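User: structure tokens for this one?
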Amino acid sequence: MVMILSYKFWQSLFIGTCILLVVTATSYAQEVPIPQKHLVNQFIERQITLGNLSQSDVSVRPLTYSKVRDMFKQLAVVSDELSNKDRQLLKRFESEFSIEKFESTISFPLQKSTLRRIGNTAFSNYQIHGSEPHFLSYRDSTVYAWADVSETMRLEAIEESIYRRFTDQVSVFGSLYDQLSFYVNFTINRFVGDSSLVYKIEDFKNEDHPYFDFVNWTLWYQSEATFNISTKYGNFQLSKTPVIWGFSPLHSPILSGSTQTFPYINYSFKYKNIGFHFIHGSLLSMESIDIHHKEGSPQKYLAAHRIELEINENLIMSFNEMVIYGNRPFEIEYLIPVNFYWPAEHNQGDRDNLLMALDCSWRIKPGLRWYNTLFWDELAWEKVLTKWWANKFVFQTGIHWVSKTSPYLADLRVETTVSRPWTYTHNDIVNSYTSAGIGLGLPQGPNSQSVLLKAGFWPSYRWYFNISSMLIRQGSGLGSSPMDNYDLRDPELDDNTPYLLGEIHNSSEFRFETNYSINRIIDLFGLISFKYPNSGYSGHLGIIIDW
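Assistant:
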């Protein structure tokens, strides 16, 4: 009897909570993530540096459809102050992300009207005011939804040979009463060639990749999904999407989004000038291919929270705590979003990997923004200025410049990073700051130093390209990978560990990337990369057909 009453109590509590979340929802539940490679990210970064948007809009990424549409509304208010080029870009992206032209009847792909509209779009020039075509779309007073199908075909240059690669992608999104939403994306990658070469593909993230010799194909799969509830108390999510925390778009020391997407629960809210983000996710303790060949893999989890404070409209600061733990079921204490992980981890025996970070972004003036990150894995304050081996930290500083008076000049970014040996590592490999063998933080990993120079330019609202150069100094041996075990270090270096361990390798990479939109369905893109001293060229050339 007691068990039945207890069950009914928890059942009633769960149902009541769900009803409360739904009826109190006040904000749009359109949490569809936008890929980092999407050009709208470059446009938004530009507007933030110019002072037209808040810096908090890019402190946690990826951007979402709802956030981007909100930002477009803010830009529309000041559109008279924008340059002619920025107004054209705003119109382009507004129409691309708009749902206003969705019809109240489902547009099936094989209907004559749909095929005619798609055909007219595919064989016409880019229409800046045209609506974005979708494979399926529907909208009424309570529901709207769409489905997209895209095919990417490219030639990959690897080791001075050319290989073909195809990417098939299906994505579906739906929203109910602007309160509940879901999103799912499924991608199949087909590489025509040997599976050992896929590790050299830039966006490959250690997925399992079987090779089928009868067709000479190597396949790997990627997926994303989100179920979101938006309320006046914040956003609640069950999600499997990229996670990027920090102001560096591609090289954040905190969470860079470099790994396979992993599932997590998420809670976030913003009240006036204070923002809070919490995630608790399940990671992969080894590469996917190894999981397939072993009976099981150890449990591994990430808990993280971030609190942001906008000091004023030009200065924002944040504090981050992350903890990696495993070899046991999820820890309830780490599920409390506002709990400090430092004392929690210490009182549980110091067996987990605790990491912290401070970062800030200061818009010195419209057109000039300076950001900094201090990430530490472990520090002893009495030894903070010494070469003690456990002073494991990453320091990054960067400047983003956009011309306020000459909009056709290139946007410039300079970013330098210093990463101490052994950062992100642990004496239990399960607790390393990784997922599927890839670091969650700085892509270059520990025992490295780098300088990035990047220039991005819009010749027109349809064409974007950037040129970048990265200079890297990389140490070698143990302490150079986040997967290393720090118990295996050389104890004679404990009080004299330099900023770069082992033999130091100097290298550089030069990149030229471009994207050109023929119309609303077809995009062309390309990359040429040259690495020194390997003197190796690589890159790709491709076409995207997105319907």
